[in-house]
Design goal:
129 residues, alpha+beta, 60s Ribosomal Protein L30, Chain: A, 6 strands, globular
Length: 129
């Protein structure tokens, strides 16, 4: 099997990482944060706005690999405050519905930028054609 590194269409390619790496039928989603298509931080100080943006970013990354949120197998969620746990459930209900992946929630002191309140990485299985 070969490794395929996928950049997002219409976005500048990163020199540091690929947003999506495919190995066989597995898709590895780089940790997504609350940045919009222009690279601007969305929802400074607002966990819910950031969480919605993060999930929208994950959906976009998965689409670039031919998958959807329903194809997620595992997510690791990093939050800067354990109190966000209940709010996070409302966001997962919207984006994941009944397609619940295995999940780990990690509370961290900070993320790469102090403005980020949440980051999510994931693993998905590419649907068979």
């Amino acid at each position: 099997m070969t490794i395929k590194r996928i950049q997002l269409p219409g976005r500048p390619a990163s020199k540091l990482y690929a947003p999506l790496v495919q190995y066989g039928d597995l898709l590895f989603v780089t940790g997504q944060v609350a940045r919009d298509r222009d690279g601007q931080i969305v929802g400074r100080g607002d966990f819910m706005k950031q969480a919605y943006q993060v999930f929208a970013n994950i959906a976009e990354v998965l689409a670039a690999g031919g998958a959807t949120m329903a194809d997620l197998l595992k997510v690791t969620v990093f939050v800067t405050d354990a109190r966000y746990r209940d709010e996070f459930r409302a966001v997962t209900d919207k984006y994941l519905g009944a397609h619940l992946p295995a999940s780990t929630l990690v509370v961290v002191a900070a993320l790469a930028d102090p403005a980020f309140l949440i980051e999510i990485e994931g693993i998905a299985a590419k649907p068979q054609s």
